[in-house]
Amino acid sequence: MTTIPSPEPRERAVLVGITSTPDIPRHLVEEYLDELKFLADTAGADVITSIIQEKKQPDPATCIGSGKAEDLAGLVEADSIDIVIFDDDLTPVQVRNLERILKCKVIDRTGLILQIFAIRAKSAQARTQVELAQLEYLLPRLSGAWTHLSKQKGGIGTKGPGETQIETDRRLVRNRIASLKKKLRAVSLQHDTQTRGRAAVPRVALVGYTNAGKSTLMNALCPEAGAYAENRLFATLDTKTRRLELKINKLVLLSDTVGFIRKLPHTLVESFKSTLDEVLQADFLLHVIDVSHPGFEEHMQVVRETLKEIGVKHDHIIEVFNKIDALDDPAILTGLRGKYPDAVFISAVRGLNLSALKETIANYVARDYKTRKVKTHVSNYKLIGYLYDHAEVIDKKHVDEDVLLTIRVHRNNLKQIDAMLKASASKNHAAANLQHHETHD
């Protein structure tokens, strides 16, 4: 008889946010805590309650102040709380002090996001990237931190290196970090080699705030993509690339990438650089926006700042407002069309306006197409075949034994065409010289 393992019990959590009027108003902190609740749910915790502390400056010892910490300790005991999650980053000292007072696990937003990435990481590359980020996050917290990361306790904050890296020797952890970085550099080099052949095809990357609907849009545009889509934050971490046919001999490579989020841990940005290379190498980006979210404009700003942080310097970005079917008031959509005249408004899940999005992509790609005339011998089947496969042949004329083709081709293909023309010219020149010498002899 096969026994099915029972799922791990969900932890009971309390969320803590800090407001500082007028810099950080209470309504904004409430919105942040709503997102933190979603993160906690994704990580496997049930949020019992949330508290907001008014404080001009975080207390160096406990972040929220000793009095508030004692009040929180009473709440933790009364409601059998397993974990307290802070929306703001905590120092190692604050974590240690809070755990001593609260007598339960304490984690901050960064630690929570790292935990979700550890749960979601499926491929070897993603697991390596997450482990690197976790170790760099935990390195300054080694002193006493491993006691709540041992196998005796499960739940949030314990998945990943904490299960095996019981040693508290900083040197060993640093050696592991160095080893992981070396491994990721090798993966990045291998990825560059594998994708070198794609250079001739225009590349488009989907970017956006987490849960904006990127994977759903990927599946809608490329039905064979099979991108994992779920109403969860960071549903997918691995980049997936598929061909998107636009017109005859006009296609793009469309890549789905990891979602961004407010306060995305810097260690994650650094360790996921090789995954985010798809964004850096793309000819242009589709910025997918969940227009039904009340804070979508702040989400847009977060994405812009994250793109800047990873090194995207161009402004070749098409804004795609998704989930328009979730808007109750048509006037909102009218106002947004006026504010963002170059944007495309769609519903990926219902397939609304996808043809308009494809047309916009095609028009964007068309800007990089050039018209060229190519003259070659009729027997140059390799070049002629390449032109028919990778370009749009507008006109064809025969001139004696040559064929003159007028083509429209993407600039990325011009280098290959020129190389093939040069090779055929050299071959013809060599043949002519050989014929000349034979005649002379």
From TrEMBL:
Origin: domain of life: Bacteria
InterPro entries, sorted: G_HFLX_dom, GTP-bd, GTP-bd_M, GTPase_HflX, GTPase_HflX_N, GTPase_HflX_N_sf, P-loop_NTPase
GO cellular component: cytoplasm
Keyword Cytoplasm: yes
Pfam family, any one: GTP-bdg_N
Binding residues for Mg(2+): S215, T236
UniProtKB keywords: Cytoplasm, GTP-binding, Magnesium, Metal-binding, Nucleotide-binding
GO MF terms, alphabetically ordered: GTP binding; GTPase activity; metal ion binding; ribosome binding
SUPFAM superfamilies xrefs: P-loop containing nucleoside triphosphate hydrolases
Domain Hflx-type G: 202-369
CDD domains named among the record's database cross-references: HflX
Subcellular location, record wording: Cytoplasm
Residues holding GTP: 208-215, 234-238, 256-259, 322-325
Presence of keyword Magnesium: yes
Cofactor: Mg(2+)
Function: GTPase that associates with the 50S ribosomal subunit and may have a role during protein synthesis or ribosome biogenesis.
Protein family (similarity comment): Belongs to the TRAFAC class OBG-HflX-like GTPase superfamily. HflX GTPase family.
Subunit structure as annotated in this protein's UniProt entry: Monomer. Associates with the 50S ribosomal subunit.
Protein name in UniProt: GTPase HflX
The species this protein was found in: Chlorobaculum tepidum (strain ATCC 49652 / DSM 12025 / NBRC 103806 / TLS) (Chlorobium tepidum)
